């Protein structure tokens, strides 16, 4: 995940792309989550958010979401 060329679909929200479990920010950049006290978290608006609480979308679900909301 250290490769800067990884991109996801920019949907305007944080989500987890399945099946590869990449965390994608609202701009389509792949973000590496951190492990804090055994939980995988991201930092959003200066607060820790658990990755398990983010929506999990596969490619077809992401495209359906983009078609409806953009």
Explain the overall architecture.
The protein is built from one helix and seven strands; from the N terminus they run βββββββα. The strands form two sheets. A four-stranded mixed beta sheet has the order 3-2-1-7. A three-stranded antiparallel beta sheet has the order 4-5-6, with no helix packed on it. Helix content is about 15%, strand content about 35%. The protein has one helix spanning about 60-70; strands at about 15, 20-25, 30, 35, 40-45, 45-50, 55. The mean pLDDT is about 85.
Overall mean confidence score, pLDDT: 86
Which residue ranges are poorly predicted, with pLDDT under 50 across at least 5 consecutive positions? none
Biggest sheet overview: 4 strands, mixed
Coarse morphology: globular
N-to-C SSE series? EEEEEEEH
Number of strands: 7
Helix content: 10-25%
Rg, Cα atoms, Å:
12 Å
Number of helices: 1
Structural class: alpha+beta
Strand content: 25-35%
Distance between the ends: 28 Å
Task: Give the oligomeric state.
Answer: single chain
Spatial order of the strands in the main sheet?
A: 3-2-1-7
Topology of helices and strands:
Blueprint: E1 15-17, E2 22-24, E3 30-31, E4 34-36, E5 39-44, E6 47-50, E7 56-57, H1 59-69
Parallel strand pairs: 1-7
Antiparallel strand pairs: 1-2, 2-3, 4-5, 5-6
């Amino acid at each position: 995940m250290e490769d800067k060329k990884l991109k996801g679909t920019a949907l305007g929200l944080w989500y987890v792309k399945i099946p590869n479990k990449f965390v994608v920010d609202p701009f389509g950049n792949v973000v590496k989550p951190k492990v804090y006290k055994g939980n995988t978290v991201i930092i959003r608006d200066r607060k820790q958010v658990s990755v398990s609480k983010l929506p999990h979308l596969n490619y077809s679900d992401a495209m359906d979401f983009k078609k409806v909301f953009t």
